Amino acid sequence: MTVYFIGAGPGAADLITVRGARVLAASPVCLYAGSLVPRELLAECPPDARLIDTAQLDIDRITAELVAAHRDGHDVARLHSGDPSVFSAVNEQMRRLDEAGVPYEVVPGVPAFAAAAASLKRELTVPTVGQTVILTRIAQQATAMPEGEDLATLGRSGALIVLHLAARYVDRVVAELLPHYGSACPAAVVAMASRPDEIVLRGTLDSIAEQVRAAGVTRTAVIMVGRTLGAEQFHDSHLYSPARDRHTC
């Protein structure tokens, strides 16, 4: 049988993909991160499904549950918030499943940064303003960042920075990005993106930290800093330009 790593999306239950919902509905075992995955999604599981909250489980116990379900002949839905491709700790689970000879597939989901951009009503790449998005985090009480991936280094690019897992340390984020972006650079924080209790904060590097503190945002948020967040005057893209020759490739 197969373990399916499913991106559950950013929070709203209806933002899971059709494929993800279909796999979830057909899996007799479901492991989910109870602190992040909306409970409403579990209603998609079969009525007699075995539901396992992984919030308090370490990697060895999670792997044991996945391997045991496979040996019992059950497909497993392994629900992760957002999309499994970023900050999901999926790699270490897949590595252990490879060692155990357990097959798996990955079903992509809507990442938190995409939901945050939707809430802000912003395209993160804007012609002639910014065409690069950096997804990153900071090292605090988690795994250390690789050499050369600190904010001071990444900030030299001037690209739009999207930070996960950093709302609690917004003052540090601002301090490290100020020398490269300037105090007037647009910044935003979206917490609980797509959920009923969503919080959207807009400002500049000079003001965003105070807004975050005032709103009491400490987790489940993304921080965005970059010129494209405030872009108003820019050239239309070539994609839909009337001057484009649509008869050539």
From TrEMBL:
Coiled-coil boundaries: none
Protein name per Swiss-Prot or TrEMBL: Precorrin-4 C(11)-methyltransferase
Catalytic activity, EC: 2.1.1.133
UniProt keyword list: Cobalamin biosynthesis, Methyltransferase, S-adenosyl-L-methionine, Transferase
Pathway(s) served: Cofactor biosynthesis; adenosylcobalamin biosynthesis
Domain Tetrapyrrole methylase, residue spans: 2-208
Entry-linked InterPro entries: 4pyrrol_Mease (IPR000878), 4pyrrol_Methylase_sf (IPR035996), 4pyrrole_Mease_sub1 (IPR014777), 4pyrrole_Mease_sub2 (IPR014776), Cbl_synth_CobM/CibF (IPR006362), Siro_Cobalamin_biosynth (IPR050161), Uropor_MeTrfase_CS (IPR003043)
GO biological process: methylation
Gene: cobM
